[in-house]
Specification:
- The protein has 189 residues and is mostly helical.
- It has two domains: 2-124 and 162-179, Tetracycline Repressor, domain 2 (Orthogonal Bundle); 126-160.
- The chain is 70% helix and 0% strand.
- The protein is flat and about 65 Å long.
- The relative contact order is 0.11.
């Protein structure tokens, strides 16, 4: 709290006029940043709109990777968080998913996007990342074919740095999984 007060040029006790504690500040910062998530255009299909919304969330997390831990460890109940949740749930309901599948799809999309960005940002691009990826490729390609045929066959793809195209393709697959016979209700779960 003292460092924050110094950074904004106030006495530490002044922060308590607006926030009860550090957690309240984190909640406010998180919600403010979630306000940067762009709402999808109204002329999109519900699937296209979900891809647009989650892609905007991904861009926010890429720009602010410190938010990854906050989004999974804090209750997201501020006005911007509630708006994003409402947009997601409304779009999923437009897809005519049942209540259970709507909620499961909401969590799956949130987890997929957050996890994908966590994987993307774990190692920033550069020489060190390129070297680690080359070593990983070499290791996978050298595995015994009999014991690890799939890993060896996919060694080059596994070593590739994922990006926007891979994110969007996976996101579309997750969405499709809930709408084409892959739902929890249909499988009896």
């Amino acid at each position: 709290m003292r460092r924050l007060a110094d950074a904004v040029g106030v006495m530490p006790n002044a922060l308590y006029t607006y926030f009860t504690d550090k957690a309240a500040i984190l909640d406010a910062v998180l919600d403010d940043l979630l306000g940067d998530i762009k709402r999808p255009r109204s002329n999109l299909t519900w699937r296209q709109a979900l891809v647009s919304l989650m892609s905007s969330y991904r861009r926010l997390l890429l720009a602010q990777p410190g938010l990854i831990a906050l989004t999974v460890s804090r209750p997201m109940v501020g006005p911007n968080a509630l708006r994003v949740r409402e947009d997601m749930l409304t779009l999923l309901r437009r897809g005519e998913l049942g209540e259970s599948d709507t909620v499961i799809a909401y969590f799956a999309l949130f987890a997929y996007t957050t996890g994908f960005v966590a994987f993307e940002t774990a190692r920033p691009p550069g020489k060190r990342d390129a070297k680690q990826r080359a070593q990983t490729h070499q290791l996978h390609a050298a595995l015994p074919t009999g014991a690890f045929p799939s890993t060896r066959a996919l060694a080059a793809r596994l070593a590739k740095r994922p990006g926007g195209a891979e994110f969007t393709r996976g996101l579309r697959a997750v969405i499709t999984g809930f709408t084409r016979g892959g739902s929890a209700q249909q499988s009896g779960n």
